[in-house]
Design brief:
The structure holds 2 protein chains of 2 kinds.
Chain A: E1 3-15, E2 23-31, E3 37-40, H1 50-62, E4 69-72, H2 90-117, E5 124-126, E6 131-134, E7 137-143, H3 144-153, E8 160-167, E9 185-197, E10 203-213, H4 220-239, E11 270-276, H5 298-310, H6 321-331
Parallel strand pairs in A: 3-4, 10-11
Antiparallel strand pairs in A: 1-9, 2-3, 2-8, 5-6, 6-7, 9-10
Helix pairs in contact in A: 1-2, 2-3, 4-5
Chain B: E1 3-10, E2 13-20, H1 25-32, E3 51-54, E4 57-60, E5 73-75, H2 87-94, H3 104-117, H4 123-130, H5 141-152
Parallel strand pairs in B: 1-5
Antiparallel strand pairs in B: 1-2, 3-4, 3-5
Classes of the chains: A alpha+beta, B alpha+beta.
């Protein structure tokens, strides 16, 4: 009995967001008297980093340090409306809404600073470290905190902004079925190297190499983290996870999500990633978002690698040892493909 | 149901509570003494999110009868510094070893136990020590890297 090596490849074009009757997100921004900004959103951060990314986007747009921004999410009763955290839309849709809201608040902050400094607001710029100064004359400056306080305590103005970003409904052409469901796509290509044991039917992923094009990587470490973790989730889906029993008798389980096999830290594969940045024209600072696509290409790549290794084409996930062994039996043994 | 007194040390502090017969340690920690750092993941010993140290040995609090910790020491992630200054906490942050964070307290306790017993573990020992803890987000690599980082830099066992 032999362990066969195989290599599989898959590529993906992944749509950012969706379009079921239009796809809007909203954001509300306001400053407290201390010049610290709160961003209210209704989409949630479920670990993918949306709070970090929208915080960065807000700070960059407002022209204040990232430490001066707090993002408050996940209260759909009191927050501004959002379609939600799904379809890889968070960075793109919510980020754009945050930019609109932050621009409005920034303009009010600069007007207050202009009144305090007795200059024209058009002549002011922010240094991103908490100061507003006259362009070309850094000495004539006011802190963002003092400007926000002046607005609220002397000028009687809120330093606030409302933002909405909408991808409008794309009607389906009744003649051709054509529509434009999304505004931009992210892309990836992935190579999986596996070994297949033709005695046990076990598939082991030895190495993953991938290239992801995600627009601007607004937070590169979060992008890398999500791509590595997402690929593991895809690997888990490809080889392990099912609520169908792995043996013919249903009583052998698993019968629910807490019982089925999930790979642990001993089952991971080395994953080397190249992150390519082609900023999207309509994305926040060019960002698209890695989103769900991080979990997708590894599944067909592993299926292709298994086919390359032993000639068994498994068409339903997960690729369990039983399916591999049945395929080997049907083929009369392993039929290794050409080494790639 | 009958309720019995239970005394144990939690992160060095004496605790005395009344517990119901058959109560598990996880419920006593979360509801009895208000330590919410141990997480209820699967509640059947499969995920490791509820991992705590009982007299220094990692155990699944969801499967531990509360009365068995009478007079013993229980350590949870709640006993780690609130400012995140423990070497493991710093390494977890530096390596982005948490996404949603639900598995993190269990991971920290499993890693703490490893570094106490084996200050300079190799990769296989780290993987083995964490193998009872499931993480849905990270793909494990950042967690393994964080523990190895502490193991390499003067080793663990400093807590």
């Amino acid at each position: 009995m032999t362990v066969h090596r195989g290599r599989g490849f898959a590529a993906i074009n992944y749509p950012i967001g969706m379009n079921l009757g239009g796809d809007p997100s909203q954001a509300l921004v306001h400053s407290g008297p201390d010049g610290k900004f709160a961003i209210a959103l209704s989409s949630i951060d479920l670990g993918q980093g949306m709070k970090s990314v929208t915080r960065q986007i807000a700070a960059e747009t407002l022209g204040v340090p990232v430490e001066d921004v707090y993002v408050d999410t996940a209260d759909s009763d009191t927050g501004p409306h959002c379609m939600g955290s799904f379809a890889s839309r968070g960075t793109h849709r919510v980020g754009n809404a945050v930019i609109v809201a932050a621009k409005e608040a920034r303009a009010i902050m600069l007007e207050a600073a202009a009144e305090e400094l007795e200059v024209n607001a058009d002549d002011l710029e922010t240094d991103g470290r908490g100061n507003i100064h006259v362009r070309g004359a850094p000495g004539r400056s006011i802190t963002t905190g003092d400007a926000c306080q002046a607005a609220q305590f002397r000028h009687g103005k809120t330093v606030a902004g409302r933002g909405i970003f909408l991808i409008p409904l794309s009607e389906v052409d009744p003649e051709t079925g054509e529509m434009t469901p999304v505004s931009c796509y992210a892309h990836a290509a992935l190579v999986a190297d596996v070994t297949v044991d033709d005695e046990t039917g076990e598939v082991t992923v030895e190495q993953v190499n991938s290239a992801y094009e995600v627009g601007r990587a607004i937070n590169p470490r979060l992008v890398e983290q999500q791509l590595v973790g997402g690929a593991w989730m895809g690997l888990s889906h490809a080889l392990f996870e099912t609520t169908e029993p792995r043996y013919p008798d249903r009583s052998h389980g698993p019968v629910d999500f807490s019982q089925y096999t999930m790979p642990g830290p001993g089952d991971i594969a080395r994953h080397d990633i190249a992150i390519l940045e082609r900023p999207a024209p309509d994305g926040p600072f060019g960002g698209k978002g890695p989103g769900e696509m991080c979990a997708n290409p590894i599944m067909p790549a592993i299926a292709n690698a298994v086919f390359n290794a032993v000639g068994v084409r498994v068409t339903a996930l997960p690729i369990t040892p039983e399916k591999v062994l049945r395929g080997l039996k049907a083929n009369g043994g392993a039929r290794p493909g050409p080494r790639r | 149901m009958a309720r019995k007194p239970l005394q144990f040390r939690l992160n060095g502090a004496e605790k005395a509570v009344f517990v119901e017969d058959g109560a598990n340690l996880l419920d006593v920690l979360r509801r009895g003494v208000g330590d919410l750092t141990a997480k209820r993941g699967c509640a059947q010993g499969g995920c490791g999110a509820c991992t705590v140290l009982i007299d220094g040995v990692p155990g699944l609090s969801c499967l531990t009868l509360a009365e068995t910790v009478e007079g013993r020491s229980v350590a949870t992630a709640g006993g780690l510094p609130g400012d995140g200054s423990h070497p493991l906490q710093e390494a977890f942050m530096a390596h982005f070893a948490a996404q949603c964070g639900f598995c993190t307290p269990g991971m920290l306790m499993a890693a703490t136990a490893l570094l106490e017993s084996t200050p300079h573990p190799d990769r296989n020992q780290v993987v083995h020590a964490l193998s009872g803890n499931i993480c849905r987000c990270t793909g494990y690599e950042p967690i393994i890297a964080a523990v190895l980082d502490v193991a390499g830099e003067g080793g663990g066992g400093r807590s």
